[in-house]
UniProtKB/TrEMBL annotation:
Family annotation (PANTHER family): TBCC DOMAIN-CONTAINING PROTEIN 1
UniProt entry keywords in alphabetical sequence: Cytoplasm, Cytoskeleton
Name of the protein described by the UniProt record: TBCC domain-containing protein 1
Lineage, highest ranks first: Eukaryota, Viridiplantae, Streptophyta, Embryophyta, Marchantiophyta
Keyword Ribosomal protein recorded: no
Record's GO cellular component terms: spindle pole
């Protein structure tokens, strides 16, 4: 079949797109999870996991309300908890629980049949367990390597954004992730990442289907088939859609499983038939609607590097034929996309410099947010969120709302992040402060320096409602139960000297209680809530402060109150009082300018005049 014919067929609905979440939030830097022996090794692993299957679980009440009717029987078979994962893979208990929790965070929670683990609360994850096939698929993609970074073409522009050299420059290993960051190198664009993920899935789709395949009833080992139940597990990696809807159940997108009766499931389909159909309909998200993909003169940047599993020339080929989508189809069916292409449904805060940005629930498209390359700025993203990525930022404050799935912070310097989330992963950052309200242990990976963590320290009127909506429990805060993993991420495409992988990673330290302060989120002149709704508003930090931090806060408040009373009661002549007031105002104004907070005041004033001014 020619490239033109293949591309035309792939653009006929429905389309299959790679889910970004497993690759952005589901890769774990544990070398023991990477299995390179092929399908045979994964089949042996499944056999080991089957030896530790949980008894038929009785779903917790908190979870049962969110699971489709009938899911108990469908998802109650062949499930495993972290103890079984630890025994099968030889992992520590904490690492096995991390695998289970990571799977819970990346499983799809919308569309057709939803696995109960995807909507389980934190206390229920162990009792619910994971489907063994989902565990095997998650472990399979641990062989994925990220797109290699590329040299920045505009060093002058980067130098303007990163004007202050770091004290770590020149003291770290030349291949350290911190030394390959801007201005020397920069991260791949979203289009490159999507093309790379798509190339990985296309290459490994035969093996993935082989893992899910079963023998025919006559026992013919050469005639493998795929059942409806097995096929649905691919929803971990793929989503389906057409022009009339944003999301279809994966099984309903296929001609051989669509509209099957639950009481009489569709007959198993030959593996080869399923593979052929999927390859014809698997395409980049930018090809979802004809005419959506565009091309610049140079198409996707070819870094010239290669990666052990999917060579970059397979994902980013310059020679191409014309495509009905308006882009150019390369030999492997990928489409060259614009460097500034951004996936639908993701809210971006990108490249903000010396400014304040506000995004509220009305601005959020689907709970997916990326905050990238912001410098000397304050970013507010307030509302119910699902996944958030923060990378490449410096000298900034980022305040996030309630994040139900996961937050990933990467390659940031001198950033204060304030977030209430189910999970957070911190990678390759330095001199950052994290004020956290998290239900699971914070994961710290890579080459980090001078990081501090502290309890959550703010609130806004809808915070408690947003926490309830996304399933974050404010009574559970594991901010200080850090899990620090290896210095080197095996998914990184950068080569490292021998022995570096054995180096001890530097973990964050806990902020001293006397340095803890509350952060006030401005109201931006919003109207007061109606009388009947006032009791629903959050009026204080919903996360309970540890006693040392609470005592330090009370001591500071008392000291401020004593100072105010002293200033009020001191006997001074009127001219002395005016001098004192003038001096206080002068010092305050100097502090505003020296810290850059004066700009925030101007930004807030501009927002009050024009609500769109901070977008």
């Amino acid at each position: 079949m020619s490239a033109e014919t293949t591309s035309a067929a792939s653009l006929e609905p429905p389309w299959l797109h790679v889910r970004r979440e497993p690759f952005e939030y589901g890769l774990l830097p544990l070398p023991s999870l990477i299995i390179n022996e092929g399908v045979y090794a994964f089949r042996n692993l499944r056999t080991k996991l089957l030896e530790h299957v949980l008894p038929t679980p009785s779903w917790p009440v908190s979870n049962a309300a969110t699971v489709n009717v009938g899911s108990h029987g469908k998802f109650g078979k062949k499930r495993v908890a972290s103890a079984g994962i630890a025994a099968s893979l030889g992992l520590q208990e904490a690492h096995a629980h991390l695998v289970l929790d990571t799977l819970a965070s990346v499983l799809p929670d919308e569309g057709g049949d939803i696995d109960p683990l995807a909507r389980s609360s934190v206390p229920d994850i162990e009792s619910v367990g994971a489907d063994i096939d989902d565990v095997v698929l998650l472990l399979y993609i641990q062989t994925y390597k990220r797109v290699p970074p590329r040299a920045h073409k505009d060093a002058a522009a980067v130098a303007d954004v990163w004007p202050t050299p770091s004290v770590f420059d020149g003291f770290l290993n030349a291949t350290s992730p911190l030394q390959t960051r801007c201005p020397r190198r920069t991260l791949p664009c979203q289009a490159e990442e999507e093309a790379h993920q798509l190339a990985f899935v296309r290459k490994h789709l035969p093996s993935l289907l082989a893992l899910l395949a079963e023998s025919t009833e006559d026992g013919d080992q050469d005639a493998k088939v795929i059942t409806l139940e097995k096929f649905q597990h691919l929803a971990l990696l793929l989503r389906a859609g057409d022009a009339s809807t944003d999301l279809l159940p994966l099984s309903q997108a296929t001609p051989f499983f669509a509209n099957s009766d639950p009481d009489m499931p569709a007959a198993p389909v030959p593996l080869a038939q399923v593979l052929d159909w999927m390859l014809l309909h698997l395409c980049a998200a930018s090809e979802r609607t004809p005419g959506k993909a565009h091309i610049k003169d140079n198409g996707i940047h070819d870094s010239g590097g290669s990666e052990a599993d999917v060579p970059m020339q397979d994902a980013c080929v310059s020679g191409a034929a014309s495509s009905p989508s308006g882009g150019a189809t390369v030999s492997n069916g990928l489409t060259q996309m614009r460097r500034d292409w951004r996936p639908e449904g993701v809210t971006y805060v990108d490249g903000v410099t010396r400014a304040s940005v506000l995004k509220t629930e009305a601005d959020l498209k689907s709970g997916l947010v990326k905050v990238a390359n912001c410098h000397d700025s304050v970013v507010y993203v307030l509302g119910p969120l699902k996944y958030v990525s923060v990378f490449g930022c410096s000298d900034s404050i980022v305040v996030l709302g309630a994040v139900g799935k996961a937050v990933r912070v990467e390659l940031c310097e001198r950033v204060q992040l304030i977030v209430a989330s189910a999970r957070i992963c911190i990678a390759n950052c330095r001199e950052c402060l994290f004020n956290l309200g998290v239900n699971q242990r914070p994961l710290v990976i890579g080459d980090n320096h001078n990081l501090q963590v502290a309890p959550y320290n703010t609130f806004y009127p809808k915070l408690e409602a947003d926490l309830a909506q996304v399933g974050v429990d404010a009574t559970v805060n594991s901010w200080d139960r850090l899990l620090t993993l290896g210095l080197i991420d095996p998914h990184d495409s950068i080569s490292h000297p021998a022995g570096v992988a054995d180096a001890q990673a530097e973990g964050p330290v806990l902020l001293q209680p006397e340095r803890f302060t509350n952060f006030a989120i401005p109201k931006w002149g919003e109207a007061e809530p109606q009388q009947q709704q006032q009791h629903l508003q959050t009026r204080a930090n919903p996360f309970l402060l540890p006693k040392p931090f609470l005592l330090a806060q009370q001591h500071r408040s008392k000291a401020v109150e004593n100072l105010k009373q002293t200033l009020k009661s001191v006997a001074l002549e009127e001219n002395r009082k005016r001098d004192l007031t003038t001096a206080i105002h002068a010092y305050f104004k100097e502090w505003l300018y020296s810290t850059g907070n004066i700009r925030q005041i101007y930004d807030l004033q501009g927002h009050e005049r024009d609500p769109k001014a901070m977008d």
